[in-house]
Design goal:
Low-confidence stretches: 237-242
Radius of gyration: 17 Å
Helix content: 40-55%
Structural class: alpha/beta
Strand order of the largest sheet: 3-2-1-4-5-6-7
Strand content: 15-25%
Shape: globular
Distance between the termini: 29 Å
Number of strands: 7
Mean pLDDT: 92
Number of helices: 8
């Protein structure tokens, strides 16, 4: 049975998403404070802290998850632009360094350390990049949206959102020469019915893992680099529909 490590959106804010996996997997997540790590064991979720500004901490996170889990072969990098927007709502100069560490550097460090570890193991693994996108100021202008409930992301959150997308797409190209690697790229924008429910989004990701891992043929690079709309279907041959 596959076990899973989820990073990007911290517990308890990611609890609904993580709970979607606990019936069939052991789940490892991230908490802001080590004292909170034991708060989620009753829900079947193990956790530790992650210093996003440290490559060593990313390596330690992966090792801790491997130690606690029986068969760690699924990973989710979860970027929630709306959630990050609540933390970096304004483009204040004094927040830029922390914002970059939180939303950009952290994922780069984690992916680098993950690939080093996977290269050592060379065991079948599926890595999912899941992003809940939110529009920028320019995107709202171009779309002509009159939805008063839509508040655009700050510049730094939008830049980080684009950086995550680029990281995911470039990571997906690695399937070409790594026989053990499968990749899922999933987008969920504010118009998607799953946007308001992390639990339903998590259920869909779990189902997608099962479909991908059940296919006999491997992904091509083009297929791996294609984004699928959250809630959409994944068909035979890893054809992903936007």
């Amino acid at each position: 049975m596959a076990d899973i490590l989820i990073v990007g959106k911290d517990l308890p804010d990611s609890l609904d998403f993580a709970e979607a996996f606990v019936a069939t997997r052991k789940v490892f997540g991230v908490v802001r404070d080590e004292g909170e790590a034991g708060n989620f064991e009753a829900e079947g979720i193990l956790a530790t802290t992650w210093n996003r500004a440290s490559a060593i901490s990313s390596r330690s996170l992966i090792i801790k998850a491997e130690t606690k889990l029986e068969q760690l072969d699924e990973f989710v990098l979860f970027f929630d632009s709306y959630w990050f927007g609540t933390k970096f709502e304004l483009d204040r100069t004094e927040d830029i360094s922390v914002a970059v560490e939180t939303m950009i550097t952290s994922f780069q460090y984690f992916i680098n350390e993950l690939m080093l570890r996977l290269e050592q193991r060379k065991e079948p693994v599926t890595v999912a990049f899941v992003i809940k996108t939110y529009p920028s100021k320019a995107e709202l202008v171009h779309s002509g949206s009159k939805n008063i409930n839509l508040h655009p992301t700050s510049n730094i959150v939008n830049a980080a959102q684009q950086a995550f997308i680029a990281l995911a797409e470039n990571f997906a190209t690695l399937v070409s020469d790594r026989q053990y690697l499968s990749v899922l790229l999933a987008k969920c924008d504010q118009s998607n019915e799953l946007f308001g429910s992390d639990k339903e989004l998590g259920k869909w990701v779990k189902e997608s893992f099962g479909i991908i891992e059940g296919f006999k043929s491997r992904q091509s690079v083009k297929q791996a680099c294609s984004w699928v709309k959250a809630g959409g279907k994944i068909s035979n041959g890893f054809t992903l529909f936007k």
